[in-house]
Amino acid sequence: MKTEIFIHRSRIEAPAAEVYAWHALPDALEQLTPPGEHIEVIERTGGIERGARVVLRFGRWPFRRRWVAMHQDFEEGRYFSDVQVSGPFAYWKHTHTFEPDGPGACTLEDKVEYALPFGFLGRWIAGSFVRRKLEEMFEHRHTVTARLLTAERSKRPEEK
Questions:
Q1: H helical segments located in the chain
Q2: CA 66, CA 85: separation in Å to the nearest integer?
Q3: Tens-digit pLDDT profile for residues 97-110
Q4: Whole-model pTM?
Q5: Sheet of 53-58: strands edge to edge?
């Protein structure tokens, strides 16, 4: 099985621990979903710690599908990863990393290792489409993360 790697990085004007904590909020996934994407969380157990699980329904009728993901590894404030248990990919592992960049900022990195079903044929038919969707989705997610964290920080009184 040939896997592809997709990486998207952004500098976020918030400490790594704060950005990690925001991603751990129960509704973070819903807030990060781009408009027009039909994704619904239908079941969730736990948060982003090892063993936590989320079941999604995506797509439009009559092409709706389920996607089950399990959180695999994590280091609080630093990274967490999830893997597809069942869903549209032959393989999917998504690692979210929060690397400090000075005291008040971090680099947010999303790394997705994935394989499309049907081998070469799947890559030939859907490879560029999937890559473009990943680029659009993670550009949106990083923009939303930066915007929401900046707005949240601006509401706080200045620390002295």
A1: 16-23, 28-32, 119-155
A2: 10
A3: 999 999 899 999 99
A4: 0.90
A5: 4-12, 106-115, 91-100, 79-86, 65-75, 53-58, 39-45
